[in-house]
Design brief:
single chain; alpha+beta; four-stranded antiparallel beta sheet
Length: 288
């Protein structure tokens, strides 16, 4: 278990640990009080969260966000739910069908994909993984305030596939003050993970973030403009949020909404990309 799980919590501790983590990963000591880079902006939001934090917590919960979408009249964005479980025993006795994906409602980055056979989908090893998810307090691990106090549950959804028969690409819309300014596209997330960044006019940006960058731009998907409009709607009221969509043959589906991507420690190649994206954020927010 990581050291931060044993260290004190609270605003000062959370931010100090986040800055030290970013310094270790980025190679520079971020200035979260006067942010200039993309990562500094993300860390600054830990010092002063712009928006309603309780709403951010609800949106972060992978089950509760679906109720929020319904209240907004955006049922069209909701991915169906097969079940939400508070114990491993409930999962073990549930009758599943088809291809499915399991995630924790209170964590980030974890997923298990399986195909049910005779009503059973998960192995003993999978159930032990679920047990570890239910035992983890992701807030202590990440020190992201929107995860603090979330109910610990496992959500199971049908596995989405796009028109090629593969799991859909992730299209992630970075928004400041409700305005999208960049689009992250993840390819082959469960195979060979690559990533591209585009501006909102679908120009490929000349830097990579965390993963290898394919230098060949992809054709602009038909749903980009609709996704930009939906991202504007969902991002209202927050300083920064990343709105993630799946582009499906039937239309858009919301993946998740993220307030602290990479925990403010995303490596850029070349490093200048960190500053360039940060400057765009300053221009939009009027703080340049």
């Amino acid at each position: 278990m990581k050291l931060q799980n044993y260290l004190p919590t609270g605003h000062l501790w959370d931010n100090a640990l986040s800055l030290l983590n970013a310094r270790k990963r980025l190679g520079y000591f971020p200035n979260s009080r006067q942010p200039r880079t993309f990562n500094e902006h993300i860390l600054a939001q830990k010092w002063f969260f712009e928006g309603e934090l309780e709403l951010a917590k609800r949106i972060t919960d992978k089950a509760q966000v679906k109720d929020w979408l319904t209240e907004l009249g955006r049922d069209d964005l909701v991915v169906p739910t097969l079940g939400v479980f508070e114990s491993v025993e409930d999962i073990e006795t549930y009758h599943f069908e088809g291809e499915l994906i399991a995630k924790s409602t209170h964590g980030s980055g974890e997923a298990i994909i399986r195909t049910a056979q005779n009503g059973k989908a998960f192995t003993r090893e999978d159930l032990e993984v679920f047990r570890s998810w239910l035992a983890e307090d992701y807030y202590k691990r990440s020190r992201e305030p929107n995860y603090k106090g979330l109910r610990k549950r496992i959500i199971v959804e049908p596995l989405l596939r796009d028109e090629t028969g593969n799991p859909p690409k992730d299209f992630k819309f970075f928004c400041v003050n409700g305005e999208p300014f960049a689009i992250q596209v993840d390819h082959g997330r469960y195979t060979h993970h690559t990533r591209q960044l585009y501006d909102t006019n679908w120009n490929l940006l000349p830097y990579a973030m965390c993963y290898e960058r394919n230098p060949d731009p992809m054709a602009k998907p038909a749903l980009v403009d609709e996704a930009l409009q939906s991202a504007r709607q969902l991002a209202q009221g927050f300083g920064f949020v990343r709105v993630d969509f799946y582009f499906m043959p039937s239309g858009l589906k919301l993946g998740e909404m993220t307030f602290f991507p990479g925990n403010g420690a995303e490596l850029f190649t070349p490093p200048e990309g960190d500053t360039q994206l940060g400057q765009i954020m300053l221009e939009i927010s009027g703080k340049r």
